[in-house]
TrEMBL record:
<feature type="coiled-coil region">
    <location>
        <begin position="143"/>
        <end position="228"/>
    </location>
</feature>
<protein>
    <recommendedName>
        <fullName>Stathmin</fullName>
    </recommendedName>
</protein>
<feature type="coiled-coil region">
    <location>
        <begin position="92"/>
        <end position="119"/>
    </location>
</feature>
<dbReference type="GO" id="GO:0043005">
    <property type="term" value="C:neuron projection"/>
</dbReference>
<dbReference type="GO" id="GO:0031110">
    <property type="term" value="P:regulation of microtubule polymerization or depolymerization"/>
</dbReference>
<dbReference type="GO" id="GO:0031175">
    <property type="term" value="P:neuron projection development"/>
</dbReference>
<dbReference type="GO" id="GO:0005737">
    <property type="term" value="C:cytoplasm"/>
</dbReference>
<feature type="coiled-coil region">
    <location>
        <begin position="284"/>
        <end position="328"/>
    </location>
</feature>
<dbReference type="InterPro" id="IPR000956">
    <property type="entry name" value="Stathmin_fam"/>
</dbReference>
<dbReference type="GO" id="GO:0015631">
    <property type="term" value="F:tubulin binding"/>
</dbReference>
<dbReference type="Pfam" id="PF00836">
    <property type="entry name" value="Stathmin"/>
</dbReference>
<dbReference type="InterPro" id="IPR036002">
    <property type="entry name" value="Stathmin_sf"/>
</dbReference>
<keyword id="KW-0175">Coiled coil</keyword>
<dbReference type="GO" id="GO:0007019">
    <property type="term" value="P:microtubule depolymerization"/>
</dbReference>
Amino acid sequence: MLIGLVRDSVMQCFCHSCRAPVLPAAHRRSAPVKKPVGKPRTKQPKKVKFITTEIRCQEMSKGGLAYEVILAEPVGVPAPRRADSPEKTSSVEEIQEKLKAAEERRRSLEASKMAAIAQKMAKIEEASRIRSEQTNNFISTTKEALDAKMDSHEEKREAYINELRARLKDHLEGVEKTRLSLEQQTAEVYKAIEEKMNTAADKRDENIKKMLERLREHEEQVRKVRNGNQERFQQLESAIQDKLQQAAERRLLLEAEQKEKLRNHNNKLVEVRSVITAKMEEITKDIETKLTAAEQNREKEMQKKLDFVKKEERRAELVRQNKSARAECEPAPTAE
Protein backbone atom coordinates (compact mmCIF):
# COMPACT_ATOMS: atom_id res chain seq x y z
CA MET A 1 0.00 0.00 0.00
CA LEU A 2 2.86 2.37 0.89
CA ILE A 3 4.56 1.64 -2.45
CA GLY A 4 1.33 2.43 -4.29
CA LEU A 5 0.91 5.78 -2.47
CA VAL A 6 4.51 6.80 -3.19
CA ARG A 7 4.02 5.79 -6.84
CA ASP A 8 0.87 7.97 -7.05
CA SER A 9 2.73 10.92 -5.50
CA VAL A 10 5.56 10.54 -8.05
CA MET A 11 3.11 10.28 -10.94
CA GLN A 12 1.39 13.48 -9.85
CA CYS A 13 4.71 15.27 -10.26
CA PHE A 14 4.49 14.76 -14.04
CA CYS A 15 2.07 17.59 -14.57
CA HIS A 16 2.64 19.88 -17.51
CA SER A 17 0.57 22.49 -19.25
CA CYS A 18 2.05 21.79 -22.69
CA ARG A 19 2.89 18.68 -24.64
CA ALA A 20 5.86 17.05 -22.78
CA PRO A 21 5.78 16.08 -19.08
CA VAL A 22 8.07 17.89 -16.63
CA LEU A 23 10.04 15.94 -13.98
CA PRO A 24 11.51 17.30 -10.73
CA ALA A 25 14.72 19.27 -10.68
CA ALA A 26 16.96 16.21 -10.38
CA HIS A 27 15.55 14.79 -13.62
CA ARG A 28 15.60 18.16 -15.39
CA ARG A 29 19.31 18.55 -14.72
CA SER A 30 20.01 15.16 -16.33
CA ALA A 31 18.80 16.43 -19.76
CA PRO A 32 21.06 19.29 -21.02
CA VAL A 33 19.38 22.07 -22.98
CA LYS A 34 21.17 23.95 -25.74
CA LYS A 35 20.88 27.68 -25.32
CA PRO A 36 19.98 29.60 -28.43
CA VAL A 37 22.46 32.06 -29.91
CA GLY A 38 20.32 35.08 -29.33
CA LYS A 39 18.00 35.84 -26.48
CA PRO A 40 14.55 35.58 -28.01
CA ARG A 41 11.52 36.06 -25.86
CA THR A 42 10.20 32.64 -24.94
CA LYS A 43 7.67 31.41 -22.43
CA GLN A 44 9.27 29.92 -19.38
CA PRO A 45 7.80 26.53 -18.27
CA LYS A 46 5.88 26.53 -15.05
CA LYS A 47 7.71 25.22 -12.03
CA VAL A 48 6.68 21.87 -10.62
CA LYS A 49 4.40 21.99 -7.64
CA PHE A 50 5.79 19.37 -5.28
CA ILE A 51 3.45 17.45 -3.01
CA THR A 52 4.70 17.28 0.53
CA THR A 53 3.92 14.06 2.34
CA GLU A 54 3.87 13.11 6.00
CA ILE A 55 4.33 9.54 7.25
CA ARG A 56 3.09 8.67 10.72
CA CYS A 57 4.04 5.41 12.44
CA GLN A 58 1.84 3.93 15.15
CA GLU A 59 2.22 0.61 16.96
CA MET A 60 -1.21 -1.00 16.60
CA SER A 61 -0.45 -4.33 18.28
CA LYS A 62 2.46 -6.21 19.81
CA GLY A 63 5.08 -6.70 17.09
CA GLY A 64 3.10 -4.82 14.38
CA LEU A 65 3.32 -1.29 12.96
CA ALA A 66 0.76 0.71 10.99
CA TYR A 67 1.94 3.45 8.60
CA GLU A 68 -0.30 6.39 7.73
CA VAL A 69 0.73 8.50 4.70
CA ILE A 70 -0.86 11.98 4.63
CA LEU A 71 -0.73 13.89 1.32
CA ALA A 72 -0.67 17.66 1.81
CA GLU A 73 -2.26 20.16 -0.50
CA PRO A 74 0.00 21.38 -3.34
CA VAL A 75 1.71 24.63 -2.49
CA GLY A 76 2.37 26.95 -5.38
CA VAL A 77 5.56 28.97 -5.37
CA PRO A 78 5.17 32.05 -7.56
CA ALA A 79 8.05 32.35 -10.00
CA PRO A 80 9.70 35.75 -10.21
CA ARG A 81 8.72 37.57 -13.36
CA ARG A 82 11.45 38.63 -15.67
CA ALA A 83 11.52 41.96 -17.33
CA ASP A 84 10.00 41.85 -20.73
CA SER A 85 12.71 41.74 -23.34
CA PRO A 86 12.20 43.45 -26.60
CA GLU A 87 10.35 41.35 -29.05
CA LYS A 88 12.47 39.69 -31.63
CA THR A 89 11.35 37.60 -34.54
CA SER A 90 12.79 34.09 -34.54
CA SER A 91 13.98 32.51 -37.71
CA VAL A 92 13.02 29.08 -39.08
CA GLU A 93 16.36 27.58 -38.04
CA GLU A 94 15.93 28.74 -34.46
CA ILE A 95 12.44 27.28 -34.39
CA GLN A 96 13.73 23.95 -35.74
CA GLU A 97 16.52 23.93 -33.14
CA LYS A 98 13.98 24.59 -30.42
CA LEU A 99 11.79 21.79 -31.72
CA LYS A 100 14.78 19.44 -31.83
CA ALA A 101 15.75 20.40 -28.29
CA ALA A 102 12.18 19.86 -27.15
CA GLU A 103 12.12 16.46 -28.87
CA GLU A 104 15.41 15.52 -27.20
CA ARG A 105 14.06 16.65 -23.84
CA ARG A 106 10.90 14.61 -24.38
CA ARG A 107 12.89 11.51 -25.33
CA SER A 108 15.23 11.88 -22.34
CA LEU A 109 12.24 12.34 -20.04
CA GLU A 110 10.56 9.26 -21.49
CA ALA A 111 13.78 7.26 -21.12
CA SER A 112 14.22 8.38 -17.50
CA LYS A 113 10.56 7.57 -16.82
CA MET A 114 10.90 4.07 -18.32
CA ALA A 115 14.10 3.52 -16.32
CA ALA A 116 12.33 4.50 -13.09
CA ILE A 117 9.41 2.19 -13.94
CA ALA A 118 11.81 -0.66 -14.73
CA GLN A 119 13.64 -0.04 -11.44
CA LYS A 120 10.35 -0.18 -9.51
CA MET A 121 9.29 -3.35 -11.31
CA ALA A 122 12.68 -4.87 -10.49
CA LYS A 123 12.16 -3.96 -6.83
CA ILE A 124 8.69 -5.55 -6.88
CA GLU A 125 10.10 -8.71 -8.49
CA GLU A 126 12.92 -8.78 -5.92
CA ALA A 127 10.39 -8.44 -3.10
CA SER A 128 8.27 -11.28 -4.52
CA ARG A 129 11.38 -13.42 -4.93
CA ILE A 130 12.44 -12.74 -1.32
CA ARG A 131 8.91 -13.55 -0.17
CA SER A 132 8.93 -16.84 -2.08
CA GLU A 133 12.37 -17.68 -0.65
CA GLN A 134 11.11 -16.94 2.86
CA THR A 135 8.06 -19.12 2.22
CA ASN A 136 10.24 -21.95 0.90
CA ASN A 137 12.59 -21.57 3.88
CA PHE A 138 9.62 -21.66 6.25
CA ILE A 139 8.24 -24.77 4.54
CA SER A 140 11.64 -26.48 4.63
CA THR A 141 12.20 -25.61 8.31
CA THR A 142 8.68 -26.73 9.19
CA LYS A 143 9.23 -29.97 7.30
CA GLU A 144 12.57 -30.55 9.02
CA ALA A 145 11.01 -29.87 12.43
CA LEU A 146 8.16 -32.24 11.59
CA ASP A 147 10.62 -34.92 10.44
CA ALA A 148 12.67 -34.46 13.61
CA LYS A 149 9.55 -34.67 15.75
CA MET A 150 8.39 -37.80 13.91
CA ASP A 151 11.85 -39.36 14.33
CA SER A 152 11.81 -38.59 18.06
CA HIS A 153 8.27 -39.99 18.27
CA GLU A 154 9.40 -43.15 16.46
CA GLU A 155 12.38 -43.49 18.81
CA LYS A 156 10.14 -43.01 21.87
CA ARG A 157 7.65 -45.52 20.47
CA GLU A 158 10.41 -48.07 19.80
CA ALA A 159 11.83 -47.47 23.29
CA TYR A 160 8.36 -47.95 24.80
CA ILE A 161 7.82 -51.16 22.77
CA ASN A 162 11.27 -52.44 23.78
CA GLU A 163 10.50 -51.65 27.41
CA LEU A 164 7.17 -53.50 27.15
CA ARG A 165 8.93 -56.43 25.51
CA ALA A 166 11.56 -56.45 28.26
CA ARG A 167 8.83 -56.38 30.92
CA LEU A 168 6.95 -59.17 29.15
CA LYS A 169 10.19 -61.13 28.85
CA ASP A 170 10.89 -60.67 32.56
CA HIS A 171 7.32 -61.72 33.37
CA LEU A 172 7.61 -64.79 31.16
CA GLU A 173 10.95 -65.63 32.75
CA GLY A 174 9.31 -65.33 36.18
CA VAL A 175 6.43 -67.54 35.03
CA GLU A 176 8.91 -70.06 33.63
CA LYS A 177 10.86 -70.02 36.86
CA THR A 178 7.62 -70.52 38.83
CA ARG A 179 6.64 -73.39 36.54
CA LEU A 180 10.06 -75.01 36.89
CA SER A 181 9.95 -74.59 40.66
CA LEU A 182 6.43 -76.11 40.75
CA GLU A 183 7.58 -79.01 38.59
CA GLN A 184 10.59 -79.46 40.83
CA GLN A 185 8.40 -79.39 43.92
CA THR A 186 6.01 -81.85 42.27
CA ALA A 187 8.90 -84.15 41.43
CA GLU A 188 10.14 -83.87 44.98
CA VAL A 189 6.65 -84.65 46.29
CA TYR A 190 6.39 -87.64 43.94
CA LYS A 191 9.81 -88.75 45.03
CA ALA A 192 8.96 -88.34 48.70
CA ILE A 193 5.69 -90.23 48.20
CA GLU A 194 7.50 -93.03 46.38
CA GLU A 195 10.11 -93.17 49.13
CA LYS A 196 7.34 -93.26 51.74
CA MET A 197 5.56 -95.96 49.77
CA ASN A 198 8.77 -97.92 49.44
CA THR A 199 9.58 -97.51 53.11
CA ALA A 200 5.97 -98.42 53.98
CA ALA A 201 6.21 -101.49 51.75
CA ASP A 202 9.54 -102.43 53.32
CA LYS A 203 8.16 -101.91 56.78
CA ARG A 204 5.07 -103.85 55.83
CA ASP A 205 7.20 -106.71 54.49
CA GLU A 206 9.31 -106.63 57.62
CA ASN A 207 6.19 -106.56 59.75
CA ILE A 208 4.74 -109.41 57.76
CA LYS A 209 7.96 -111.36 58.12
CA LYS A 210 8.03 -110.65 61.80
CA MET A 211 4.38 -111.58 62.07
CA LEU A 212 5.01 -114.78 60.07
CA GLU A 213 7.90 -115.63 62.31
CA ARG A 214 5.75 -114.98 65.32
CA LEU A 215 3.01 -117.04 63.69
CA ARG A 216 5.44 -119.88 63.14
CA GLU A 217 6.56 -119.63 66.70
CA HIS A 218 3.01 -119.41 67.76
CA GLU A 219 2.06 -122.39 65.59
CA GLU A 220 4.85 -124.33 67.12
CA GLN A 221 3.64 -123.32 70.50
CA VAL A 222 0.07 -124.04 69.41
CA ARG A 223 1.09 -127.42 68.18
CA LYS A 224 2.60 -128.03 71.53
CA VAL A 225 -0.52 -126.98 73.38
CA ARG A 226 -3.10 -127.92 70.68
CA ASN A 227 -3.82 -131.20 72.11
CA GLY A 228 -4.44 -129.76 75.49
CA ASN A 229 -6.17 -126.44 74.52
CA GLN A 230 -8.02 -126.71 71.15
CA GLU A 231 -10.54 -124.03 72.01
CA ARG A 232 -7.83 -121.49 72.87
CA PHE A 233 -6.12 -122.26 69.58
CA GLN A 234 -9.26 -121.45 67.64
CA GLN A 235 -9.62 -118.13 69.46
CA LEU A 236 -6.05 -117.20 68.71
CA GLU A 237 -6.45 -118.10 65.02
CA SER A 238 -9.55 -115.94 64.71
CA ALA A 239 -7.69 -113.03 66.39
CA ILE A 240 -4.79 -113.40 63.98
CA GLN A 241 -7.14 -113.40 61.01
CA ASP A 242 -8.78 -110.23 62.32
CA LYS A 243 -5.44 -108.53 62.71
CA LEU A 244 -4.37 -109.52 59.20
CA GLN A 245 -7.62 -108.18 57.77
CA GLN A 246 -7.24 -104.92 59.69
CA ALA A 247 -3.67 -104.57 58.44
CA ALA A 248 -4.84 -105.09 54.83
CA GLU A 249 -7.64 -102.55 55.31
CA ARG A 250 -5.20 -100.05 56.83
CA ARG A 251 -2.83 -100.53 53.90
CA LEU A 252 -5.66 -99.89 51.42
CA LEU A 253 -6.69 -96.73 53.29
CA LEU A 254 -3.12 -95.41 53.22
CA GLU A 255 -2.87 -96.09 49.47
CA ALA A 256 -6.23 -94.33 48.86
CA GLU A 257 -5.12 -91.27 50.90
CA GLN A 258 -1.83 -91.01 49.00
CA LYS A 259 -3.65 -91.28 45.66
CA GLU A 260 -6.13 -88.55 46.74
CA LYS A 261 -3.25 -86.24 47.68
CA LEU A 262 -1.60 -86.82 44.30
CA ARG A 263 -4.90 -86.11 42.51
CA ASN A 264 -5.40 -82.84 44.45
CA HIS A 265 -1.83 -81.77 43.69
CA ASN A 266 -2.34 -82.41 39.98
CA ASN A 267 -5.57 -80.36 40.03
CA LYS A 268 -3.74 -77.46 41.67
CA LEU A 269 -1.03 -77.59 39.01
CA VAL A 270 -3.67 -77.45 36.24
CA GLU A 271 -5.36 -74.45 37.89
CA VAL A 272 -2.05 -72.57 38.25
CA ARG A 273 -1.21 -73.18 34.58
CA SER A 274 -4.65 -71.94 33.45
CA VAL A 275 -4.30 -68.76 35.56
CA ILE A 276 -0.83 -68.08 34.11
CA THR A 277 -2.05 -68.51 30.52
CA ALA A 278 -5.03 -66.19 31.18
CA LYS A 279 -2.72 -63.49 32.56
CA MET A 280 -0.41 -63.80 29.55
CA GLU A 281 -3.35 -63.40 27.16
CA GLU A 282 -4.58 -60.30 29.04
CA ILE A 283 -1.10 -58.71 28.94
CA THR A 284 -0.73 -59.38 25.20
CA LYS A 285 -4.20 -57.90 24.50
CA ASP A 286 -3.37 -54.78 26.54
CA ILE A 287 -0.10 -54.31 24.66
CA GLU A 288 -1.85 -54.69 21.29
CA THR A 289 -4.52 -52.09 22.21
CA LYS A 290 -1.85 -49.62 23.39
CA LEU A 291 0.14 -50.10 20.19
CA THR A 292 -2.93 -49.52 17.99
CA ALA A 293 -3.84 -46.37 19.98
CA ALA A 294 -0.27 -45.02 19.63
CA GLU A 295 -0.34 -45.69 15.87
CA GLN A 296 -3.67 -43.87 15.50
CA ASN A 297 -2.39 -40.87 17.48
CA ARG A 298 0.74 -40.76 15.33
CA GLU A 299 -1.33 -40.78 12.11
CA LYS A 300 -3.56 -37.98 13.46
CA GLU A 301 -0.52 -35.86 14.38
CA MET A 302 0.99 -36.40 10.91
CA GLN A 303 -2.32 -35.43 9.27
CA LYS A 304 -2.50 -32.21 11.34
CA LYS A 305 1.03 -31.22 10.39
CA LEU A 306 0.41 -31.95 6.70
CA ASP A 307 -2.81 -29.89 6.78
CA PHE A 308 -0.92 -27.00 8.37
CA VAL A 309 1.83 -27.16 5.70
CA LYS A 310 -0.77 -27.30 2.90
CA LYS A 311 -2.59 -24.32 4.43
CA GLU A 312 0.65 -22.31 4.53
CA GLU A 313 1.40 -23.24 0.90
CA ARG A 314 -2.10 -22.13 -0.17
CA ARG A 315 -1.66 -18.88 1.74
CA ALA A 316 1.72 -18.23 0.07
CA GLU A 317 0.17 -19.02 -3.32
CA LEU A 318 -2.69 -16.56 -2.66
CA VAL A 319 -0.18 -13.87 -1.66
CA ARG A 320 1.79 -14.40 -4.88
CA GLN A 321 -1.39 -14.34 -6.96
CA ASN A 322 -2.53 -11.12 -5.26
CA LYS A 323 0.82 -9.48 -5.89
CA SER A 324 0.84 -10.52 -9.53
CA ALA A 325 -2.78 -9.36 -9.98
CA ARG A 326 -1.98 -6.03 -8.31
CA ALA A 327 1.07 -5.58 -10.55
CA GLU A 328 -1.03 -6.34 -13.65
CA CYS A 329 -3.89 -4.04 -12.60
CA GLU A 330 -1.67 -1.03 -11.93
CA PRO A 331 -1.56 1.04 -15.18
CA ALA A 332 1.80 2.05 -16.52
CA PRO A 333 2.25 5.88 -16.77
CA THR A 334 2.20 7.15 -20.34
CA ALA A 335 3.37 10.48 -21.76
CA GLU A 336 0.70 12.91 -22.80
